[in-house]
Fold this protein.
Amino acid sequence: MTRDFGFAEALHAGQPCPELAEKLMLYGWLIGGWTMRARLQPEPGKWVEAAGTIDFGWILEGRAIQDVWNLPGWFHGTTLRVYDPAIDAWHILWNEPFKQYFTHQIGRVSGKDIVQIGKGRDNRDIRWSFTEIRPDSFRWTGERKMDDGSWFLECDIRAGRRA
């Protein structure tokens, strides 16, 4: 069996693509390693807490960002974030192979926040948001739209940059 050691080199990039750098910084500030403390609400009124890590990196000649979210016991997946100049927004592709949960969202700036809108596995609207953004911390929330039009908070994460 031979191994192609060129894969990692072909995937990873050390910086954003220069001609898109300004637009890529909507998520580019996330590049690096983070720790997270999560509160999850798998059903109304039942909260659980967990801790994990998130790692973000430039990929594909700096034209996209890939991140890996690892929250042991809850999820271990990856996001591909690709800027689309035609719509001046980002395609967000979340892949969680263990639970077979895959989503496509559109991400845009919304005031001081980043909001991603898409459909969940049950075809309900989902909204995933980065808020309280600072150079070394952020809050991430995952919400699902209910039949009455309200938003149900499924996940609330506080993340801090690893040293």
